[in-house]
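Intended use. Records like the one below are meant for learning the mapping from a protein sequence to its folded structure. Do not use them to infer anything beyond what is encoded.
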Amino acid sequence: MLADMTAAVQNLRAKYNEMHNALVPMSRRYHTLTEHIAQAESYVKYAPIYKRFIELDGDKQDAYFNKHPRELQRSKQRTII
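Structure written out for the chain above:
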């Protein structure tokens, strides 16, 4: 009777380990994809502002930077992998 219970607990533990080992890579992949989606959303949001900034010259670029400092900082910090 005790041996049967021990075997049942070991069997449950083995099944748990199999499920856990199968879920860990999926969880990591989900986390990675979530980060990539956030980066892509940021890129879509700030790319036009940064592109316009690059197109300007001299004083116009400085004025544009002063008008959009946060957006330009964020566009430089975010990169798509």
